[in-house]
Amino acid sequence: TQTLATLADRHHLAVGTAIDVGALSDPTYRSIASTEFSTVTPENVMKWEALEPTRGRYDWSAADRFMRFAEANDQQVRGHVLVWSNQLPGWLTEGVADGSIDRTELRALLRKHVTDVVTRYKGRIWQWDVVNEAVEDGFDPGPDGVVGYKGFWYDNLGPGYVADAFRWARAADPKALLFYNDYNIDAFADGGSLDKTQFVYDMVRDLKARGVPVDGVGSQAHLSTRYPNYSSFQIADALNRFAGLGVATALTEVDVRNLLPEERTGDTINPLLQAQAFNYGALMQGCLASRKCISYTVWGFDDGHSWTNDWDFGGGVGTEALAAIYDEDYRPKPAYAQLQADL
Ligand code: XIL
To answer: Which CATH number belongs to the domain containing residue 52 in this structure?
Structure first.
């Protein structure tokens, strides 16, 4: 059989995975990561808390290891992530909380962060996630019941930081494609995610109209078999509508969670492996049907290293997991076969 990367190549599509740098010492992990995928994203090592744990003292070691891995395997890199409210260093959030870092200084710190990180890897990053998860979730739209901006940067700098970040990133590396990245923007549909997708659409349209250098919209696509499945038509429609704004699109963090079987949770639910495969496939078919969808990245490729093992999606840590295309023993699951079939 051919690899996903080889199959996707025929469609001029890059297929990728998030990389857990610590897992690269496992030879099986390393071998699959280097052969099946043509693009890679650092799962954690380019986040601010990892790069600058102590104020003014960068630690590039893990991020550099990641870059060496990608470049040794001729893989294109999605840089992740420049501006996000999570995984910020304690000195930064504490400084803001205790008032020792004021608004003017915070904006200068953000500008320096974006500039330093983009400059460090200038010319070596294909797509940068410049701003991540800046918008309220449609399922939890805040106290006023209307979807709007959210998070540390909005709270402390106001909405102008979004345009600023894209301009600073462009100035530091004019060749990198600059992305806005978010979850629950898979489809324009009835229900909870409607308002968020529309809000992000309006935001990107407004940024483009003002000449802000936004090159792409990344749809994370963290899905679950607990929720209604999107058709490939809905996925393609959303991607095409974003593309109509003059931006590329990408599926950036694809995974499809399952409720865990009874041997792990004590309940009687078994993983819906075919429903999971259906979701992976609908996303792939939607991406392939949309001319501007340039990459399809899974957020970890094996159940053993998936972030869903350690995250609480509402029912307790790790009860909704088994989200990847390979199982814990690196055996391909039906979802892997589905991607092979769709490509
Ligand atoms: C996750 C990582 O996978 C975890 O290892 C970490 O503990 C938390 O962050 N959206 C994003 C990613 O943009 O950066 C997140 O990654 C998953 C959700």
So the answer is: 3.20.20.80
Q: How far apart are CA 206 and CA 307, in angstroms?
A: 33
**Segment among 127-131, 254-258, 259-263, 279-283 with least mean pLDDT:** 259-263
Torsion of CA 314, 78, 84, 116, to 10 degrees: 160
- Taking the C-alpha atoms of residue 154 and residue 298, their distance in angstroms, rounded to an integer, is 28
Q: How many domains in the chain?
A: 1
Q: Which residues are catalytic?
A: 133, 253
Q: What's the predicted TM-score (pTM) here?
A: 0.97
Among 223, 217, 159, 163, smallest CA distance to 193 is for 223
Q: Are the beta carbons of 73 and 85 closer than 8 angstroms?
A: no
Rounded-to-integer distance, Cα 184 and Cα 189, Å: 11
Q: Which domain holds residue 316?
A: 4-342
Q: Is 211 exposed, middle or buried (CB count within 10 Å of its CB: 0-12, 13-18, 19+)?
A: exposed
Ligand 1 interacting residues, C-beta cut-off 6 A: 43-44, 81, 132, 220, 253, 307
Q: Which atom of ligand 1 lies nearest, measured to the CA of 84?
A: 13
Report d(CA 239, CA 286) in Å as an integer. Answer: 8
In this predicted model, what pLDDT tens digit does every residue of 236-264 receive, in sequence order?
A: 999 999 999 999 999 999 999 999 988 88
pLDDT, tens digit (0-9, with 9 covering 90-100), for 162-197: 999 999 999 999 999 999 999 999 998 655 555 899
This model of the complex carries an ipTM of 0.99
Greater confidence (145 vs 149) lies with 149
Whose alpha carbon is nearest atom 15 of ligand 1?
43
Closest ligand 1 atom to residue 299 Cα is 3
